[in-house]
Each structure stands twice: as structure tokens, then as C-alpha cells.
Amino acid sequence: MPELHFDGETVVKTAGTYGRDLLERVLSTFLQSFIGGIAITTPLDGSMWYAAAAGGVGAVLSLAKGLLARVRAVTNSASLAKGV
Hints:
Blueprint: H1 8-41, H2 48-72
């Protein structure tokens, strides 16, 4: 098996790519959950804070999944899919 050598610039680029990917996934999950929560709480006369809490829970779960993907395989992606 060949040895892998990374210079400092490669490590920073890899971490930056992963960080942007994870941030995008967490923010989009929050917004999707929040909008879904509003769509549910409005007709049921629920609080907007419940919608925000639902968005927060979704975002935290998305963050955990992204961190798990990083631990599972050293890639530039926060995806659990192989080859991404």
C-alpha cells in the first residue's frame, strides 16, 4: 500500500471543502424542517417556536450525521454515500 503524504495546503483545502459541505447540509436541513414545522403548526394553531425547535432538532441530527460520515471515511464530503 503506498504511503500518503499531505502538505499543509492540501489538509486546509480538504477541511475547508468538508466544512462548507457540512454547513450547507445543516442549514438546508434547518430551513426545510422550519418551513415544514410552520406548515404544520399554522393550521393547528401551534406556536412558531415549536416550528423553530423542530428545525433545530433536524439541524442537530444533520450535523451528527455529517460528523459521523467524516469519522467513517476521510473524504471532502459529509455524505454517508460511498464515492461522494
